[in-house]
Structure prediction request, 620 residues.
Amino acid sequence: MTNKELARRIIEKMGGKNNITQSWHCITRLRFNVRDKNAVNLMEIKELEGVIGAQYQGGQFQIIIGNEVVNVFNEVSKILGLNPEAGAEQGAKGNPIERVFDVISGVFTPILPAIIGSGLLKGFMAILLATSLLSDQSATYLILNGISDAAFKFLPFLVAFSAAKKFQTSASVAVALAGVLMYPWQELINNPEITNLSFLGFMNVPVGNSYASSVLPIILGVWLLSFVERLAKKVVPNSLTIVFVPLICLVITAPLLLTFIAPLGTMIGTYLERFFTMLFDVAGPFAGALLGGLMPLIVITGMHYAFFPGSFASFEKFGYDIMLLPMSLVSNMAQAGATLSIFFKTKDSKMKQVAFSAFVPAMFGITEPAIYGVTMKLKKPFYASLIGGAVGGAIFGAFTVKALSFTVPGVLALPTYLDEASNNFIFALVGVFASFAVSFIMTWILKFEETETAEQAPASEVIARSGGPTHIVAPITGEVKQLADCPDATFAGEMVGKGVGIIPSEGKVVAPFDGVVTLTTETNHAIGVTSNDGVELLIHIGIDTVNLKGEGFSREVSEGDVVKLGDTLLQFDLERIQAAGLSVYSPVVVTNTADFLDLVSAVTTGKVSSGKDDLIIGIN
Prediction:
């Protein structure tokens, strides 16, 4: 499938471009804000060729693509044609914590290339200095140092531009606010004893603060700007908008930014930095082991963006980071170690190819392909990577290993740990090697291949281990239909998986086997359950019933609940569905069809009773 076709199908299965309010990307993921989560067909998107995984995290809908993310994003952008300053609905929903993560992610992701490039340049300069290939007194060094420092010294400008896109306000006015923060007020006054200026007789503006390399003050300032601009546009006639709206925004926002918001942002950043520093001072090895081991889970949930302000505050005050970047480095190397171990150990040629293709980017700090495509899929290697990251994190915490520049936490980041005044680089090497080696060895020892990858054994052996064919009992009472007769082309074409359809005669869905509830929807029109032996089943009540927005549906269970055969999962009103002019045809499909040699209908025609009659038989 081409990138253009993949982009088209992603947007189609997200409910169309009108359902998307914002789109951006990071190193491996497409990220979206959507108006209606219920319009997004998560399971079908996961099944698309070229998609590694998909999930809702931090108020965003994320699609993991891998190395082709930029090319796919370009095609998505062509189709969407979204204007960041067009004033579209913000779209980020969820609890306050999710919204904060969404904002931080949306602001920092677009500017990471400039920060990472500058950080790598600093690392290469450290190598050149250490090997005496470059003198810190030469003009070349001064120029390179200025190039590498610029993105960090004038970071508020980068953040302002990115935040303006996220908050959907004027980028030029936002950058002007960054200029207000960076303006040399103290030099203008030419009196170091004056630290405050009176504005309008009642506002004291601090002029002794430095906001270079800061991030929170400008983020908060641009957030305020977005509100002021919207209000100004309501009172200013359209013909005068271009003249008076920017004026009103600057006159109102800039003094508030200088007087209240910027000092508050600096204070928040300072306390974040103090908290993290105290954490490592009090319990260095333990804190390092905890963060190094849990970092993959933190990244999966998107919570790593919460560490960005604290890391930048630490860089600004001390010139180094002991938290986000070092812990991410050992965690990433642990993923690389586990993936390489799988490459050497597995007998499955397909998995061997996937493992190696994921190992290479993992070494350079891009671990999503390794996590989603390899280690989490096999489970035990993922646990091994957590152990490896914890060991490396404990070493980093014990010796307070410092990252001296911001860059992608992979092997190319090692030069940024060079410090002539200490053994920081040596300790970094020890921690990285330990995390890689421990993860590699633990993955090899845990014997994932014999217990977790049925694809690698002959079919006869699998059947012998599993005890024969898998029986799936009817979850709904009604008349059985062929899946090809489904009014929805996606189900009829078996794009979600193989299965059957049922025309219900009563409004109840029961568990078709012993297992756990793994998927629910806000509208309760569909539910996913996974059996104890790994069958992943989707039960979808009616077609297009998402449009009822939950009316006529009630769910009796929640995600994560353990259920027994015959337990009630959903109740639904058949008459309500029919009165709305919707089809009651209900697909029942096995979404992990590829794990079976074949799936056959136990009943090709006629009626079945829920919780009693076999519906589908899986040939293992």
Remarks:
- The first strand starts at residue 20 and ends at 25.
- The longest helix spans residues 241-301.
- Residues 292 and 393 are 4 Å apart (CA to CA).
